[in-house]
Design a protein that fits this description.
five-stranded mixed β-sheet, nine-stranded mixed β-sheet, alpha/beta, globular
């Protein structure tokens, strides 16, 4: 299995028999929600879509895997989403086959998707790798596989002695307490599951990794084995173990 990290997404390519481009948490329509909270931004959907199209061109994949929260508003669709989502999805499927693993923000998105494009919320195996958004317990079939998830928007923050900080989208690669998660090793191999948390594609979404660890908000993040957790930047730069960034935070 070959894994490529695309910094300008951030996005991920996983290649076995198929070359799959993985993108998480685009949150199209987020501007309408921000407006309701007094923060007014012109829609950035066109620019976000253009960036995704450039990422597709760069990766040259066989399929595009969207790890949920394609749209933003809950529990309903906003006028912005009614207007933008059909155009966005049509623009994508006109270039490449897509599959969507719905997230907690994707209520109503099925009306814009074709049958083959809509995947189970509990996840599924594609070309030997497990995928799901990450807000639900994974399906038993994902046991013994690498599980690639979105939902958490991991962001690395490192502060120096004068208080300046590096803030950048990052991946979390973690061992899992599979017994606690309700997953069994792969039959015949004994392989156990590991998780790869993908940063948000949306440029204004991010959540500090140490907060994800301290206050986990999903079944998978609650079952991370901290001693087997590592941090990787969006361009593939290896930062180190979770313990190393916790030490820097406490210093």
């Amino acid at each position: 299995m070959k894994i490529e990290f695309l910094r300008d997404g951030p996005a991920l390519v996983i290649e076995r028999d198929l070359r799959l481009l993985i993108v998480a948490d685009m949150h199209f329509g987020i501007e309408a929600d921000l407006a309701m909270h007094g923060l007014y931004f012109r829609s950035r959907s066109a620019g976000r879509l253009e960036r995704l199209q450039r990422t597709i061109d760069q990766a040259d994949p066989d399929e595009l895997i969207l790890l949920g929260d394609v749209k933003h508003s809950i529990p309903t669709l906003t006028r912005q989403e009614y207007d933008e989502m059909p155009k966005i999805l049509e623009a994508l499927r006109g270039r490449i086959p897509i599959r969507v693993f719905p997230g907690n923000h994707d209520i109503g998105i099925e009306r814009f998707l074709e049958d083959r494009e809509l995947m189970p919320k509990e996840g599924a195996i594609l070309d030997g790798v497990g995928y799901l958004h990450g807000h639900m317990y994974p399906a038993p079939a994902l046991g013994g596989h690498l599980i690639v998830v979105g939902h958490h928007h991991p962001l690395l923050s490192i502060r120096d002695e004068v208080g300046c900080a590096l803030q950048a989208p990052a991946y979390i690669r973690a061992g899992l307490d599979t017994k606690k998660l309700g997953l069994k090793p792969a039959p015949g191999t004994g392989a156990v599951s590991r998780a790869l948390f993908v940063p948000a594609f949306n440029e204004i979404s991010g959540y500090d990794i140490l907060q994800i660890v301290k206050n986990p908000f999903s079944p998978i993040s609650r079952c991370m084995v901290h001693e087997e957790t590592e941090i990787i930047l969006a361009d593939g730069t290896y930062i180190g173990s979770l313990k190393s960034i916790q030490i820097n935070e406490d210093a």
